[in-house]
Amino acid sequence: VLPEAQHIAVAAGATHPMHKCVSTGVASKVDIQRYQIDIAEGARCEAFFLLTGGGYKRLDIDVTLAEGAHFELGAVGIGRGEEVTEIVTRLRHVAPGATSNQVMRGVAMDRATITMIGRIDVAKDAQKTDAALGAKGLLLDRTATINAKPELEIYADDVKCAHGCAIGQLDEMALFYAQQRGLPMAEARNLLMQAFVAEAYGAIGDAKWQKHMIGYAESALRGTF
What we know:
Blueprint: E1 6-10, E2 15-22, E3 30-39, E4 44-52, E5 56-65, E6 70-79, E7 84-93, E8 99-108, E9 113-122, E10 130-139, E11 145-154, E12 160-168, H1 172-180, H2 185-198, H3 207-222
Helix pairs in contact: 1-2, 2-3
């Protein structure tokens, strides 16, 4: 049974930042974070998450955007062992001129499973909507699994909506180039992984929090978080 969602109402013209790390810490533990976010006219919600460690983790976000509102998401899942991580979003553009941008990144190793599902609904009256969703996964072991599923349902005709997903392995050419510059293989791999997950936190306006989130993700990649 899913827990009740935490409701967040962002007042007109306001900006609401969210920075959160989700880790069960115990292989048998479940941690489900659910949010219902209503963003009023001209307001912004900027949400950045890191999901790593422990057993089953799920981030579930349902967002409704009023006229001229904006929602920014950067979510990273890092899984190892038998961990299961799910990132699920639904954005409801119900009024004109609202914008949204979602960046999801997953790194799976060992036998971990990461699922990223993002849905964007654009109502008939939500003209001039500009929405983007990008989900990318990095598989470090053949036994790991990453699922990515972007969904669009559009009823307005004057909109810009983009979505894409890609799942692959570390770039062999980039690894070779780094090693040619004197970096050991392990360090080169870490550098590429850090750059990959840092993409999700590029829109954090607060430099201190951006450094914190990238640092937490780098620790998770090393298994020391």
